[in-house]
Amino acid sequence: MCWKCDDPALTPEEYLARMARLVRKHCWVVQGVRGERGRPPWSYTVGLTSHQRPELVTTGLPAARAAALLDGVAAHLVHATAPPPGDQVRLVSGPLVEFVEVDHPEIHLAMAQALYGAAVRALQVVWADDHDHWPWDEGFRARQGGQPVLGRRAR
């Protein structure tokens, strides 16, 4: 969740310090942001930038499911080359995903931006529905609010 939801007693600076400690301990963390007023939730990693990798973001999934998706991809990514935008991969025990370069990571990855500044790059892990339809396809089965895509497809 966002820092205001996680621990409203913390100042933004204290929450950022906590995030930095967690990143040092665990290599990366997943930050979730609640959806509201028809806007779907989104989640993103914080910490991959320190490993010269793009941060990851996904939209339209509940926090626990998004964290599982991002943790699985991040665990692979820290030991591999980042996939190029447009790559499609079927995740083990997961959905078919496509990687899309995020146009403005500074808008959606506030904690990563606060820790790393302008160095933050991001790939969106866009997931296909249970019929392998993408959010840009007719017939995509979206959750409430859909799955906004935060950049242009490379295909």
Present the secondary structure layout:
Blueprint: H1 3-6, H2 12-26, E1 29-33, E2 42-46, E3 55-59, H3 63-77, E4 88-90, E5 96-101, H4 105-108, H5 110-116, E6 122-127
Parallel strand pairs: 3-6
Antiparallel strand pairs: 1-2, 2-3, 4-5, 5-6
Walkthrough of the structure:
The chain is an alpha+beta fold and 155 residues long. The chain has one domain (3-127). Helices cover 29% and strands 19% of the residues. It contains five helices and six strands. A six-stranded mixed β-sheet has the order 1-2-3-6-5-4, sandwiched between helices. β4 and β5 (96-101) form a beta hairpin. The longest helix is centred in the N-terminal third of the chain and has 15 residues, at 12-26. The chain is globular. The mean pLDDT is 91.
